[in-house]
Amino acid sequence: MAFRVKNYVGVSGVATVEEAEKVVEAFGACTNFGKNGAYAPMIGFQVSYKSLEYGYSEGNIRVPRLDALPGILKAVEGKVFTTLHYYTKSEDGLLREIGKLMNAGGGIYYRMLVGGLQINGVLPSPKRIESIKSAFPELKLALQLSPKSIGSAQVEDVARRLAREYPTIDYVLIDSSMGTGKEMDTGSAADIYQTLRGNKVESRIVFAGGLNGDNVSDKIEDIAGRIGTNDFSIDAEGGLRDRVGEGYGNDRLNMEKVRTYLRSASRALDANASRTDAKTR
After folding, report:
1. Distances, alpha carbon 125 to alpha carbons 49, 119, 129, 165, in Å
2. pTM for the complete prediction?
């Protein structure tokens, strides 16, 4: 069964079956995350052109081994919205790479083990996006708007382009952090949201950037207050980890941080939904 497009709360950078099962358990402790809840629970799994080619990403603990990925996805089948976060430096060969990824492990796409694909690092051409959509029609696609993917382009220009050339994109991620844990500027993020909506971008919008249990409640309240709605998703990665060495990805998921983040997000989203409902009565 295809995943229905809805807002989600995400935990990304999960790399083992044990981590995935514990994150599912943490989601289950929050009543508004799930099939019948207001927000889908999302787990994001990192894959890159390097791990796709060599089977692993040296020094990056956040990236599961390619041969282990199908088993991790199977362990959480039907319990969460599973999204692969694919990082590449170039869109050349992107369809071939995504095809190889979706056919891994006996065909993770055809076995319905993966629900979404988030493309990081580049903003692919509309033609390549449509090729991916055509090849994998049940896959929900997300584009990351980050300093790397949009470069020096103005947000207004990017918004117009998204509305005109990418109408089939399911999610747009506003992310200045790119998994580094750098805390988002909620004022700037809200402005980008308003610009996207003002230019009639209809994709679901996701906020990311340094979210953790200590700040997610305030971030949600601030964003919702600025844009006047709870109609958005959130995702966290770097803020839920403990560094074990130098370099990007040399850190481990901290499950207590995950639980605190999810509890705080759940309460904040419920509270803001109640305030929004009260205003519309």
Report:
1. 18, 12, 6, 9
2. 0.93
